[in-house]
Amino acid sequence: MICAFCGEKIIDDGLFVLGNYICALCESKLVTIKANDTNYDFYKSGLKKMWRCAGACSPSAEIILASLARR
Ligand SMILES: [Zn+2]
To answer: Ligand 1 centroid to 55 CA: how many Å?
Structure first.
């Protein structure tokens, strides 16, 4: 599996979101990252790209992060 964020090829128990694989490392980063983190924009724009669906039905990155954090 190739992580949609870091591009690492990892065989572990990451998760699939809308057909995209996110490795366990990036998953934990996503749910714990703070808005003032230097990598925040990277992860946020990565989420936006991932969830873009014909430009019409993508939820905001904040909603996705909140739903990930609830797992
Ligand atoms: Zn990753």
So the answer is: 24
